[in-house]
Fold each of these.
Amino acid sequence: MINSLIFFIVFAAHEFYVSIMDVDYSKKEHSIQVTKKIFFDDLEHALVLFTKNQELDILAYNQDSLKPILAKYFIKHIFFEVNNTIKEFNYLGQEYLDGSFYCYLEIPEINKIKNIKIKDNLLIDVFKGQENIVYLNINNNKKTIRLREGFEEQKLWFAKQ
């Protein structure tokens, strides 16, 4: 009983940092659509360091004014390579829901996906133990990858369409 209590106290005191990325390929729209979910306080802390603006309050910020800041931060920390070619993404915007920011990206003009490499080191330089979980749904294949310090990118191959 005491060992269980000690384990619970140590585990409960340990801070946990995670973000979620959903990557879906739309054959109809010929694009990769990405949703990144991040706890607002983690994102705010990272953006304070990124912008060097100690007064930054992302919940009070006008969403249109926040968009270019987030776009720059994402471009610095997230990379996609599709079929062995680096692809730029469009940062579409963000919304705040239930304690998290949902940020939306799109990679246009993708006709098929043979392989994809994703690098996501968002927040890794800010929080020790940060993990970025990526759920992929490409060509009706669902895969999950876990990115973290030292393992910030992974390449996956998919069956022909």
Amino acid sequence: MSIKQKECKHCGGCFVPARPMQNVCSAICAARLVRSAKKEEAERTKSRKEKLKRIPDLIKEAQYEFNAYVRARDSSLPCICCGQPLTKEAVGGGFDCGHYRSTGSASHLRFNEDNAHGQRKVCNRYGAGRAVDYRIGLIARIGLERVEALESDSKVHKWTSDELRLIKATYRQKLKDLLKGIE
């Protein structure tokens, strides 16, 4: 009776099986094969979940990355409305990414960098955005012409999933680049 050699499913080396249905040459290759199969399955699951995301989910993710970038960009500047320093408090941070024209009333401007600036939580959340003070600070920061362009922009925009994924990736990268420059 001749002994038939098999090729290991993981490393590709030849071996003589000790048991029927043995597909790997050793316990190490078996463990590595199982690990790589689990990793492939996790990647397939992640890919399927990504494809199932709806527009509101993608807007939320893109908004998170955009807001993080704006907070990092403006961390050394004073609050856009009151001029006080933006502080980094322990829980949740001490300031928000405040929008001059809110995401509810002008959702097409939610990812516009001219429309979003570092704003103390007191001013943004509890001061109802302090629109008049925000406008004064915004004119000082970006100029009257750009402020008026924001105010007159009333176009409607329907976000696509590809566009939102691109925005998310862009602002994630911009944040990484900004933090590399700071450190």
